[in-house]
């Protein structure tokens, strides 16, 4: 087994189903941009973290939080859906 195949077999592959389910739930609940495919959302969320770690050799909590905040802003639905149970949609909700 090649190094790349071994790495994907042991780390991301077992987690893909869980990640996909969470992303699909976010899409179904209207929290994520419906124009984005689940795999695109996954790549936008995890790609910057992995790239930074690969390039620099480390990932601090502050950098991880900054990258995660930016990625979340990129995949979040522009405006929340209206008429949801439990309250009205508005700024900051």
Average of pLDDT: 81
Given helix and strand content, the structural type is mainly alpha
Instruction: Return the string of H and E elements.
Output: HHHH
Radius of gyration: 16 Å
Portion in strands = under 5%
Give the number of DSSP strands.
0
Largest sheet: none
Low-confidence stretches: 85-93
Shape: flat
Report how far the terminal alpha carbons are from each other: 47 Å
Q: In percent, how helical is the residue content?
A: 55-70%
Number of helices: 4
Describe this structure in words.
The protein is flat, with a radius of gyration of 16 Å. With 93 residues, it is mainly α. The relative contact order is 0.11. It has helices at residues 3-10, 12-28, 38-56, 61-75. Helix content is 63%, strand content 0%. Mean pLDDT is 81; it is low at 85-93.
List the helices and strands and how they pair.
Elements: H1 3-10, H2 12-28, H3 38-56, H4 61-75
Helix pairs in contact: 2-3, 3-4
In short:
This protein is an all-alpha fold.
Labels describing this entry:
disordered C terminus, mainly alpha, 0% strand, 4 helices, flat, 93 residues
